[in-house]
From TrEMBL:
Protein name: Sensor histidine kinase
Alphabetized GO MF terms: protein histidine kinase activity
UniProt-listed Gene3D superfamilies: Histidine kinase-like ATPase, C-terminal domain (3.30.565.10)
Any Pfam family the entry gives: His_kinase
Positions of transmembrane segments: 12-30, 42-65, 77-95, 122-146
This protein's UniProt keywords: Kinase, Membrane, Transferase, Transmembrane, Transmembrane helix
Broad enzyme group: transferase
Taxon lineage: Bacteria, Pseudomonadati, Bacteroidota, Cytophagia, Cytophagales
EC number in record: 2.7.13.3
Location of the Signal transduction histidine kinase internal region domain: 166-243
Isomerase as UniProt keyword: no
């Protein structure tokens, strides 16, 4: 049975049980506790009162609250319910006068005492009015809470769809930039060492498989992500000269967890993009460590000027900004990102602490 149908059935059952309880108080517990047999006119009045309470409950629930109160017409809503309360009590008073209820109830409780007509005791009318407004208050509260829950569900669904769309867009931006940079590297290798270029193409094909299949999911295995990063670093290592010192600390064995695919790559790619010089000594440090659920990525590299007006130069910046946005969407409140790019050593340092599932 669909979940919506189950919830609907539970809601109907709740209403039936609720009104059953109120009906029991009106027709069983309260009247029978008096220990006398009341006239049929009394039971008809109880039935009229019960019917009016049910009517006003659902008129308020299905019409007054959604059409008037939630349309910000509060004064109109209060005025209608005030007049409806007076009408409710008025109907009961007219019924009492028509059926001469005061005399009937006197004969029921004091059959041996002559009846003397006295001014009406409004105590019971005030009690009836309070019962009326309790019914209206419960009806209003339930209607408002259900409307809030419905709006919250719609808002959550829209937010989920927006987040998924944005994540797909961000991943679509990151992947082409990565391949653009990598293909440029392989192109450069073809002019230096054809065998290395072939090896690089094989690694790239394995990486493309990862990108095509794993990035379609919101999460992938951490071991697959680290294998992908190792392939990327090995691919980059092929084009580095002896002037570049690499310090890579990625554990071969690590406790399994789930992570968003290609989340770490832009930080590492940024090292190779801006931390290499063909003329000066340079270094790149990459460290990944996992303790419990906490994953830590640390990167460090010297900063050299790049051609920022080229598509490749701009790609890395886009990749980092998009990765930061992905962190906000997927790991809100579960990550700490520190980027230090203003220091005396002219180094670019990144520290990312991430709480994984």
């Amino acid at each position: 049975m669909p979940e919506t149908t189950i919830k609907k059935n539970i809601s109907i059952l709740t209403h039936i049980l609720g009104w059953g309880l109120i009906g029991s108080v009106l027709f069983v517990f309260s009247p029978l506790s008096a220990g006398v047999e009341r006239p049929i006119e009394f039971w008809i009045k109880q039935g009229v009162m019960f019917s009016l309470l049910i009517s006003i409950f659902y008129i308020n629930f299905f019409y007054l609250v959604p059409k008037i109160l939630l349309s910000n017409r509060i004064r109109t809503f209060l005025l209608i319910n005030f007049l409806a309360g007076l009408a409710f009590v008025g109907i009961l008073i007219l019924y009492d006068e028509w059926m001469n209820m005061a005399e009937l109830m006197h004969k029921t409780y004091r059959p041996n005492v002559p009846y003397v007509k006295r001014p009406r005791n409004f105590y019971w009318d005030i009690s009836s009015l309070l019962i009326f407004y309790v019914s209206v208050g419960i009806s209003t509260s339930i209607a408002v809470v259900l409307k809030w829950q419905s709006d919250e569900k719609v808002r959550f669904e829209l937010e989920r769809q927006r987040t998924n769309s944005e994540l797909s867009y961000l991943k679509a931006q990151i992947n082409p930039h990565f391949f653009f940079n990598t293909l440029n590297n392989i192109y450069a290798l073809t002019n230096i060492d054809v065998e290395k270029a072939k090896t690089a193409l094989l690694k790239l094909s394995r990486m493309m498989r990862y990108v095509l299949y794993e990035t379609e999911k919101n999460h992938t295995l951490l071991t697959k992500e680290l294998d992908f990063i190792r392939d990327y670093i090995e691919l980059m290592r092929m084009r580095l000269s002896s002037k570049v010192k690499l310090e890579i600390n990625i554990p071969e064995k690590i406790e399994e967890a789930e992570i968003a695919p290609m989340l770490l790559l832009p930080f590492i790619e940024n090292c190779f993009k801006h931390g290499i010089s063909s003329q000066k000594e340079s270094f790149i440090q990459v460290s990944i460590e996992k303790k419990g659920k906490e994953l830590t990525l640390i990167t460090q590299n010297k900063v050299f000027n790049s051609t920022e007006n080229t598509p490749e130069g701009n790609a890395s910046g886009i990749g980092l900004s998009n990765t930061t946005r992905r962190l906000d969407l997927l790991y809100s409140g579960k990550f700490y990102l520190e980027i230090d790019d203003k220091n005396e050593d002219n180094e670019y340092r990144v520290r990312l602490n991430l709480t994984l599932k």
